[in-house]
Amino acid sequence: MKLKQTFKALTAVAALAGASLTFAADIDMNADANDLAIQGYDTVAYFTEGKPTQGDAKFTATYKNAIYQFSSAENRDLFRENPEKYAPQYGGYCAMGVALEKKLDTDPTAWHIADNKLYLNLNHAVQKKWLTDVPGYIDTAEANWPEIRTTAAAELNAE
């Protein structure tokens, strides 16, 4: 009888462990330990309000297993209709970092929209450099992204 209970307990633990892995944000997404993308900022607000706006846990949507928060149900619904339109480029990693073959975190207040796409940067100093040649850095990042998108950030950034 004890063997049967132990087996059931081990099966339950294995199932829970496996389930927790399926909810982790995709490797090409920059999310925190709780799978929260862009530090909870509303990615739609960059387009609709023209500024970084903190989201609210009441309004969420999932994209590539990362959780996005929004400042309103309307923004959440716009995102759900077309996440590719509103999600930051390069999974929310620093656009300049991608141009340098790195996956760096971002400051959601260091942002830029080019050709209706949202780009985030590590910080305002990096953003200042990014803004000196946005088209050139985008071209370089676009060339690098397919090769680095499935590589863990820690592995790229350790080099």
Tell me what you see in this structure.
The protein is α+β, with helices and mostly antiparallel strands and 159 residues long. 44% of the residues lie in helices and 16% in strands. The chain has eight helices and four strands, in the order H-H-E-E-H-H-H-E-E-H-H-H. It is globular.
What pattern of helices and strands is seen along the backbone?
HHEEHHHEEHHH
Largest sheet: 2 strands, antiparallel
Gyration radius (Cα, Å) is: 18 Å
Mean pLDDT: 89
Low-confidence stretches: 6-22
Overall shape: it is globular
Q: Strand fraction band?
A: 15-25%
Q: Structural class of the secondary structure composition?
A: alpha+beta
Termini separation: 53 Å
Q: How many β strands by DSSP?
A: 4
What is the helix fraction of residues, given as a range?
40-55%
Summarize the structure.
Helix content is 44%, strand content 16%. The chain is of the alpha+beta class and 159 residues long.
Quick tags:
159 residues; alpha+beta; two-stranded antiparallel ribbon; two-stranded antiparallel sheet; 8 helices; 4 strands; 44% helix; 16% strand; globular
Topology record:
Layout: H1 2-22, H2 45-48, E1 56-63, E2 66-70, H3 73-81, H4 83-86, H5 95-99, E3 107-114, E4 117-121, H6 124-130, H7 134-148, H8 153-157
Antiparallel strand pairs: 1-2, 3-4
